[in-house]
Input
Amino acid sequence: MALANKDPQELSDNLRRWLAAQLPEATAISIDNLDVPSASGMSNTTVLFTASWSNGETSSTQELVARIAPDGPAIFKDSDLGKEAIVMKALASIGQPVPTVRWVEEDSTALGAPFLVMERASGRVPADDPPFTATGWVLELSDEQQLRLCTASLEALAAIHNADWKDLGLGFLAPPDGTDVFDAELAKWREFYDWARGAEVNPTIEAGFAWLDAHRPDDRREPVLNWGDARIGNMMFGDDLAVNAILDWEMVGLGHPDIELAWWLFILRHHTEGIGLPVPSGFPTRDQVVAIYEKASGRTIDHLDYYEAWAGVRLAILMHRAGNLMIDLGFLPPDAPMRFNNPASQLLAKLIGAEPPIGSVQTFIGNRG
Output
């Protein structure tokens, strides 16, 4: 079932029948204001809706979000919404600003794929397409407000890292048999790259893996909980620019804190230098980002350059997969250069001193203002 093309009434009816099974004592169940945002992306699909029901003399109305696993080809090979739900529930238990998970449905019968349902948080999210560096509400903030937004984001990231993942029951995220967490991550992403590229070889990504092998630091720190996609575009901010919700836990795992900070910085670099735009004037410098994080976390960042190259490798792999997927779906022609030559691969080549991809740079992110 391609949700973007599915009849809204049919989707609403399916949700209503499913909700009735979750609330057997409820009556007069209705689903209203159903919306599938066009920015749902190429991984999980987001469905926004309002659910209402009665239970005796009590009536309830809730703004909800369904996060639905892909029912066909997607960016990632596998989806594990149950894992995401466990992590969000654990963090919610210690007061972290994550969406409240109401239900997890592993059966594909209702909507064609597994899904989870969360309470909808309120606030604004910095956009990716066009990016917040090109247009939108973030650029309309004063310099002081932009700094406050970034500081809140980094402080929220530090709080995730300071959560005791063992005490929260998240030990299942650790690799088996005492394997080093970064060894496990490297192996996982090499396997993902081999799947994502098909029969193709991406010279820039290959050079990136070789550089990582040659320059790996001796990093024996205890791992922390890694959100996996640490960026302001996955955060919902209130009018006071506090973080109201930390979204998208698809890449959650364990790792060193530098990995997350490097990803935060590399995504910002991708959305600025990568597509020919300046960094918003109120955003902190690289050194200031590190200082804000270190103050909030009580941790020291030691190997940021190395892990920023690691961020570049991962984003270049994701862009290669996105390019192949968009070709398969007919959104790009078969000879489209995006999978080899995109802002991520260009930035990665620059970081590791490799020969950059030649020809036209292509991305699905616009820089229109």
Q: What stands out?
A: The longest strand covers residues 45-55. The chain is about 40% helix and 15% strand. Residues 304-328 form the longest helix (25 residues). Confidence is low (pLDDT under 50) at residues 1-5.
